[in-house]
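Please produce the structure of this protein holding inosinic acid.
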Amino acid sequence: MNLVVIGAQWGDEGKGKIVDFLAEDSELISRFSGGANAGHTIVTGETTYKLHLIPSGIIYPGKKVILGTGMVIDPQSMFEELATLTEQGIDWEGRVFISDRAHLVLPDYKAEDIELEKKRFNPIGTTGRGIGVTYAHKSHRDGIRIADMYDSNIWSRMPESYRTFLEPFKARIEKMKINLVAFMAEYKGKKVLFEGAQGILLDLDAGTYPFVSSGYSVAAGASVGGGIGPREIDRVLGVFKAYSTRVGNGPFPSEFNSERDGATEEMVRELGREYGVTTGRARRCGYLDLVALKYACRVNSIDSLVLTHIDVYDDFDEVSVCVAYEYEGETITDFPSSIEVMDGAVPVIKTFKGWNSSLKESTDYSHLPEEAQKYIEFIEEYTETSVDIISVGYRRSETFIRKDLWTRS
Ligand code: IMP
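Below is the modeled complex.
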């Protein structure tokens, strides 16, 4: 059973927490895209873990994790992250595997990423982690894969600066590298969790290009970058927040604006702790965009939605969502590809009565106040997709499921 968890907005939806929650029942957790641009926060008991490259399942003792073919891996960041996990008492040795087809992020690439951003006529606001440059080298057929470090011909022809950088990691990575497709074949029929990176709207093809990342954030990426065939994907979960956020530049039709929405943005940002795990940047915040969420459901064949951060609205008298865009006298309900349209779009808002009570103690859908249920039911109706997991707080325990997700029905 292969379960794929992706972000259904612009990233930072709480995927790390949900993957961590689902990891308990899975035998293997595999990340299939992105690199150290991602940032996942997991809170268990009193400990907070911040992960960038290592899949969230690592926190569970004994679980195996994979860094898949679709990832771009900065070995220095990876070993720093692993050292931090060791300091936090996580024994990861023998549990972290890396596809030998994954590409390496080299120091030159990071510098190039920062330079390129300065020269762009459309600055994206990248994380500066060398992500786009590494994927570009990959497409140019000029990149360095994990396997290439152990190919004597390629190794000897590599620029010396690459060899100097990679040499200290070579022996350690050799013990972690795998032939991913063969490895995954051994797990056929077992419970495997695939963890996406960023969110669908930052996907190179499906996202708000050019204001996107360079990997694939779509569910199909679990096959392309995760070492399984497309028919092996059994269920797709799309994680979304009760509101929207975006880090970096680019269109955001449902973004709060102070003239219309007063201090809502600041309130949501503070209550939701909306600051980047990777860059510390304040995230832009806006209404839950159902036009975009429906698009995400379609593009990814999402079977189940996962709602997070709903508790952020606990003290709000009203909770609003964006149900359409108005642009030059037209009402738009299909997510547009034109940046100009998205930039000029005015969100059409539907407002619900707030629940004015804490949802943190809820452990079942029936515990939710009627107002919260009405809000969730509207999302389900609009997107034609059921909301099957609800997260009501940061902790692993503050999560409940509405149906067993490890079955095919
Ligand atoms: P890059 O991935 O560093 O090239 O950045 C491209 C765009 O994606 C920028 O707007 C980043 O802020 C955004 N981005 C990249 N990774 C994440 C993430 O994990 N969460 C949210 N935004 C991200």
